[in-house]
Amino acid sequence: MSVRGRLPLTRPTGDTFDLVVIGMGSAGIIAAEIAASDLGLRVAAIDRDRFGGDCLWTGCVPSKALIASARAAHTIRGAKAFGVSAGEPAVDLAAVWRRIAAVQADIAATDDNPDRFRELGVEVIQGEALVTGPREVTVGERVLNTRYTLVCTGSRPFIPPIDGITDVDILTSENLFEIDRPPDSVIVVGGGPMACEISQALNRLGVTVTMIHRGDRLLPKDHSRHGEMIADVLRTEGVDVRLGSPAVKVRSGRQGLRVWTDAGDDVTAAGVIVAAGRSPNAHRLGLDRLGIEITDRGVTVDAHNRTSVPTIYAVGDVTGRARFTHVAAYDAALAVRDMFLPGHGTPPGLVPWCTFTDPEVAHVGMTEEEAVDRYGRRKVRAHRRDLTVSDRARTDGVTTGEVVIVTSGGRIVGAHVIAPHAGEMIHELTLAIRARLKLSDLSQLMHVYPTYSTAIGQIAGDHALRTASKLRSLAKAGRLFG
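RESULT FIELD:
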């Protein structure tokens, strides 16, 4: 495997590295493993806290473990509809939280264990890192000389400027899973993926939930109708969803925490969970002293994750790009590849994502509105298939969901799925967009029956039949010579 020639180093000592990784979350873990294990490079990994980052401790892992418990309770509660006798489930919230902690501990002891990286030859350093030069990182009194630096320090919950919010004890993703159990009633401030997932899960576990979102629909970055459908699902299950009025004031009282909106209404609950977005951990790293631009969104990088200093790269949430674990991991691998190997890798042109509510909401490419803006109304068509006509949905008792495929001139440019397992279904459509396939190409792909993905094949098949119907006269004429 060919490696670029070494950059000149100022001090050939034990503190000289090929790569220094700052932040050992999802991106840092991938980068350190590739550089040390696959490329055989000398790597230092710095973290001020625990390995695993947001994904393991405050994001993907605990939230999905919570969702699994909530799904079990919801299944028991609705079992009668399937001919199974069951009553209201007895939910032990403290036990649910203990299970979440156990799942985290298992991953921390295996995949994200610092000792695993030491065995790969990575020097693990705990402390606050400061980038003190184009090829220099300082941790405490140690000065590390490095060919390249990769910054992947992640993000933290954004706290909106609500009157009184700094005077009360609030919950965020950073401390929600550190407590012994959640409050019996909560107000969730926000309307994005985390707010929706937590609201539904806690409600299913018996917590009284009120959502307050400043926007007029949930999941504003997804297909517009799907945000409305999730709001309907949440309301049907018992969540009090309040849209279009931001929270403006919060106070603590004997009844709990009271939150007012700009519409003048208010609600009181035992706790408040703020899930209103993320802020990059981009400051206090010394990057600005080197002339690297930092905006409200994060560290500015080019398409290959490189800052204005060629030896310093940044990936993941700290850059303000799509804040997903899979994006951070992809960009980390791309950055290491571009640092040490000839040529350049291919930056991702598509970012699929999924909100793990029930049903799940998955997205890739353009919405219908975005496609119309780019290509014009006459060239764009949104092909829909409602899950009420899906045999698999009928057998599973699913009543909410659809598949939407957006095309321009027949070529697939966007796809949006609201369905059970939508996160699994979106990959086929992501590949179709990446390969510049037309809907007619998907009609030639056989889909397993009965699956939710059958709906994708049915959309493509319907399109093919409409095209064939235009040739009906030729088909009839052929009978004369049969």
